[in-house]
């Protein structure tokens, strides 16, 4: 309140206005469409080692994993200042997702006795 010039960019809607909102909205729609296209038209036609074709579960897992990567990298690219903490948090989020995903996939594929 003592330095009103610091609030100038917020009052003039420099970094957030209608144009910025719709630009980010269409970026999100374009990226989501591209990810769905890649998942549905490439993974569904592939087969695994046991002869099974891709399924909706594989598509969803792929899309969710790529969204985690895209969002974390988009936060880094859109940042004005890079610190060790912000870069480490984004990269840790990506790595932690894949570690936990692998760990949970292992335990859902096998019960505690090791039977399939």
Describe it for me?
The chain is mainly α and 116 residues long. The protein has one domain (4-109). Helices cover 68% and strands 0% of the residues. It is built from four helices and no strands. It is elongated and about 70 Å long.
Record keyword descriptors for this entry.
single chain; mainly alpha; 4 helices; 0% strand; elongated
Distance between the termini: 64 Å
Structure annotation, total helices = 4
Give the mean pLDDT.
82
Please give the largest β-sheet: none
Please outline what is shown here.
The chain has 116 residues and is an all-alpha fold. It has four helices and no strands.
How are the SSEs ordered, and which strands pair?
Elements: H1 8-11, H2 18-43, H3 56-78, H4 84-109
Helix pairs in contact: 2-3, 3-4
């Amino acid at each position: 309140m003592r330095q009103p010039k610091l609030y100038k960019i917020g009052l003039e809607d420099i970094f957030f206005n209608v144009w910025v909102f719709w630009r980010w909205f269409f970026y999100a729609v374009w990226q989501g469409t591209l990810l769905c296209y890649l998942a549905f038209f490439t993974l569904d036609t592939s087969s695994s080692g046991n002869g099974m074709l891709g399924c909706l579960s594989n598509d969803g897992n792929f899309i969710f994993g790529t969204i985690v990567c895209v969002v974390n990298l988009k936060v880094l690219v859109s940042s004005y200042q890079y610190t060790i903490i912000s870069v480490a948090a984004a990269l840790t989020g990506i790595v932690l997702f894949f570690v936990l995903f692998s760990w949970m996939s292992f335990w859902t594929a096998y019960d505690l006795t090791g039977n399939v």
